[in-house]
Specification:
- It comes from Caenorhabditis brenneri.
- This is F-box domain-containing protein.
- By secondary structure, the protein is α+β, with helices and mostly antiparallel strands.
- It folds into 2 domains: about 120 residues, no CATH class; about 120 residues, no CATH class.
- It has 6 helices and 15 strands.
- β11 and β12 form a beta hairpin.
- It is globular.
Length: about 260
């Protein structure tokens, strides 16, 4: 399969750029904010909420950040703690990325980065936030269609069964062409009736005792796809939807040639 083209993030219209930033992983958002002042301002304008943000500085720089779950970023610290190269070959000092996480409250143990703080053997900075409830990004149908990934996983997706039906029909017409696996985890039994999200879509019901082997790009393990509903894209590529009502999960597997494993 040919390699996908690079995504021109900064060339998007402003509103589309902000929507894309909101659905990016926190790790990539923080990396994006360190590219330039413009990128940092864009991330600040997205109004990211977090449950915790911890920085540990020693022989390495470790950042633990929320909102949901914990993201762990580790940076190697050079002797003078420099980050990248600036204009005309000048080195740019590492600056604290804490300002890209907004709506923080509670006392901090360090109000700012002191001039000599990075000469210490070890330093810890804790920022405790009081918004400890789960925060789920509201991903719309348009935003889901923007994701140019081979594997897409969404938790508590705010889409109705009718919108999922529309997504499948748009995929049949060529949307999300690189996607191999779509995994959706619902809460509160919101996954809806398969008669709704498969309405108007010609499909074949596969017996539950029939298992097929599937392998997605970037994964070493082989998945056993049991049962489900088969349907096809306009170019003939087959996909299967499997619904697990017990765990409120909904999966879509796209059977590209490299994904088909001989049973």
């Amino acid at each position: 399969m040919a390699a996908g083209s690079k995504f021109p993030l900064l060339q998007l219209p402003h509103k589309a750029l902000l929507r894309t930033l909101r659905i990016m992983d926190l790790y990539h958002i923080l990396k994006f904010s360190l590219i330039s002042e413009r990128c940092k301002d864009l991330v600040i304008s997205v109004q990211i909420k977090g449950a915790s943000f911890d920085v540990f500085i020693g022989k390495t720089i470790k950042i633990y950040a929320g909102p949901v779950g914990i993201s762990d970023f580790t940076f190697y610290s050079e002797p003078d703690i420099y980050w990248g190269m600036g204009a005309y070959g000048r080195k740019k000092k590492l600056t604290a990325p804490q300002s890209v996480l907004v709506k923080r409250s509670g006392k901090r143990r360090a109000k700012k980065w002191r001039k000599n703080v990075l000469t210490m053997k070890e330093c810890e900075l804790w920022i405790e936030l009081d918004n400890t409830d789960d925060h789920h990004a509201l991903i719309s149908l348009d935003e889901l269609l923007l994701i140019n990934s081979k594997v897409i996983t969404a938790e508590n997706l705010r889409l109705t069964p009718k919108q999922l039906n529309k997504f499948i029909k748009l995929w049949q017409q060529g949307a999300n062409p690189r996607m191999e696996v779509l995994s959706i985890y619902f809460q509160n039994d919101e996954e809806g009736d398969e008669e709704i999200f498969m309405k108007g879509i010609k499909h074949q019901v596969i017996p539950a005792d029939q298992s097929r082997d599937f392998k997605s790009a970037g994964r070493e393990d082989i998945l056993a796809v049991e049962g489900g509903m088969d349907f096809h894209r306009i170019d003939g590529v087959k996909a299967t939807i499997v619904k697990d009502s017990f765990y409120s999960q909904w999966f879509m597997y796209v059977w590209f040639d490299h994904c088909v494993m001989e049973s």
